[in-house]
């Protein structure tokens, strides 16, 4: 496959990449765009970026409920996701919930 086709594919992948709200000055999208212009771009690099974009590994290796809800802290990952989503919206926890360790 020619480097121009690979470059075009990687530019398309970079355009579809979601923005990181926590690091607006450091985006993977801009890295992939600059990588697309590299003279030694390989098909494996484009394939890896495409697999990351489509969550191929997550589909191949499913997480079981036992892994997502460990007996020691069954709500840990749900709280973590909730905290990240609220933080992306700019919603913080009140000081008293942090102090008393209440979720």
Observed structural traits:
single chain; 103 residues; mainly alpha; 2 domains; 60% helix; elongated; Cbp6; ribosome binding
Give an overview of the whole structure:
This protein has 103 residues and is mainly alpha-helical. It has two domains: 1-62, no CATH class; 63-103, no CATH class. It has seven helices and no strands. The chain has helices at residues 3-16, 28-36, 43-53, 56-60, 65-68, 76-89, 95-99. Helix 1 packs antiparallel against helix 2 and helix 1 (3-16) runs parallel beside helix 3. The longest helix is centred in the first third of the chain and has 14 residues, at 3-16. The chain starts with a helix and ends with a helix. The model has no long low-confidence stretch (mean pLDDT 92). It holds the Pfam family UQCC2_CBP6. One of its GO terms (cellular component) is Cbp3p-Cbp6 complex. GO terms for molecular function: ribosome binding.
What's the layout of helices and strands?
Blueprint: H1 3-16, H2 28-36, H3 43-53, H4 56-60, H5 65-68, H6 76-89, H7 95-99
InterPro entries: Cbp6
Pfam family, one: UQCC2_CBP6
GO cellular component, one term: Cbp3p-Cbp6 complex
Strand percentage lies at under 5%
How many DSSP E strands? 0
Mean pLDDT: 92
Structural classification: mainly alpha
Q: What is the count of structural domains? A: 2
Largest sheet, in brief, is: none
What is the succession of H and E elements?
A: HHHHHHH
Question: Could you tell me how far the N terminus lies from the C terminus, measured between alpha carbons in angstroms?
Answer: 52 Å
InterPro entries: Cbp6 (IPR037653)
GO molecular function, one term: ribosome binding
GO biological process, one term: mitochondrial respiratory chain complex III assembly
Pfam families: UQCC2_CBP6
